[in-house]
Amino acid sequence: MIYTVTLSPTLDYVVSVDHFQTGAINRTQSEDVFPGGKGVNVSLVLNDLGYLTTAMGFIAGFTGAEIKRLLRVGGVEGNFIQVERGMSRINMKIRSDAETAINGQGPEITQEDIGTLFSRLRFLIDGDTIVLAGHIPPSLPSDMYEQILEFLKGRRLRVIVDAEKELLTGTLKYHPWLIKPNADELGDIFGVRIHSREEAVPYAAKLQNMGARNVLVSLGGDGAVLLTEQGEIFSSDALKGKVVNTVGAGDSMIAGFLAGYLDSDGDYEMAFKEGLCAGAAKAFNLTMTTKKEICYLMRTTSFDIQRKQKD
Ligand SMILES: Nc1ncnc2c1ncn2[C@@H]1O[C@H](COP(=O)(O)OP(=O)(O)OP(=O)(O)O)[C@@H](O)[C@H]1O
Ligand SMILES: [Mg+2]
């Protein structure tokens, strides 16, 4: 089974407004509601690609109930812990001349709620995959991902971590199967700026030395580079197309990478290709990535992947 953990999932309320003004009444031209959060996004894309996942995390209030309902509509089974105080976040995005976002805080999560999460994680078994993705809400300990991996130590799991700074580096001693920093996140870890795939390679290699098995660095419209546990480096430009909305391209890439890996019985080049297509499929669409779009890109793209052995 594939488990995704989104500690504070959201309801994304996306509206478009002509010439949005502060201090005035604005009327919407369109409005949509989507379930959101990084692990939730990974679950939705994987589900569309034919992989069942269980989405875990904490929810509360009527917004929490709606997140769960919308995920079920999207085919994703939730195993969320219902917490008592507060409500799941609403993240509001206003599309106008410029884009404005207002992100909610999320519910108050207690020590007891954390205990419930661990009691549910007990059921993970060898061969399962767990995706830990996104920020840690303020009411949770900042080393939450480390605590989860410490708890799961000894099980042969495929662990994927998508997080920033110490939240990511703290998990490396548990040898995650995949980490996917973008160029800014990779640069932030080492206090440098990364401008190209070539520049990313030595820093990705450092993360491998610190414990990560496979490191996928995404550079938005500049493509991605993958350092595998077999000592290979794959590098590629991004796919070409009309870019509409790149938010969530990284989450989509993770789902595509995992599906490509599982579909091909462990071929990293196939995983890399499907990751590139899934990332692009998100960038080329306003809302969700779909299997239809990913398959179309997989079929019609003539990939130009540079492949070499790590020195
Ligand atoms: N403009 C684009 N054109 C084509 N492909 C893109 C574009 N932006 C992103 N992608 C694809 O998606 C992958 C992931 O994108 P990106 O590096 O923006 O992830 P991210 O910063 O983690 O995003 P997020 O955190 O919002 O999910 C890229 O490596 C690329 O393959
Ligand atoms: Mg990201």
Automatic annotation (TrEMBL):
Signal peptide feature range: none
Keyword Transferase carried by entry: yes
Molecular function via GO: 1-phosphofructokinase activity; ATP binding; tagatose-6-phosphate kinase activity
Record's keyword terms, sorted: ATP-binding, Kinase, Lactose metabolism, Nucleotide-binding, Transferase
Catalytic activity: D-tagatofuranose 6-phosphate + ATP = D-tagatofuranose 1,6-bisphosphate + ADP + H(+); beta-D-fructose 1-phosphate + ATP = beta-D-fructose 1,6-bisphosphate + ADP + H(+)
InterPro entries the record matches: 1-PFruKinase (IPR022463), Carboh/pur_kinase_PfkB_CS (IPR002173), PfkB_dom (IPR011611), Ribokinase-like (IPR029056), Tagatose/fructose_Pkinase (IPR017583)
EC number: 2.7.1.144
Broadest EC class assigned to this enzyme: transferase
CDD domains with a match to the protein in the record: FruK_PfkB_like (cd01164)
Biological pathway: Carbohydrate metabolism; D-tagatose 6-phosphate degradation; D-glyceraldehyde 3-phosphate and glycerone phosphate from D-tagatose 6-phosphate: step 1/2
Domain Carbohydrate kinase PfkB: 18-281
UniProt GO cellular component terms: cytosol
Protein's UniProt keywords contain Transferase: yes
Organism superkingdom: Bacteria
Biological process, per Gene Ontology: carbohydrate catabolic process; D-tagatose 6-phosphate catabolic process; lactose metabolic process; small molecule metabolic process
Protein family: Belongs to the carbohydrate kinase pfkB family. Belongs to the carbohydrate kinase PfkB family. LacC subfamily.
Biological role stated in the UniProt entry: Catalyzes the ATP-dependent phosphorylation of fructose-l-phosphate to fructose-l,6-bisphosphate.
UniProt protein name: Tagatose-6-phosphate kinase
Originating species: Porcincola intestinalis
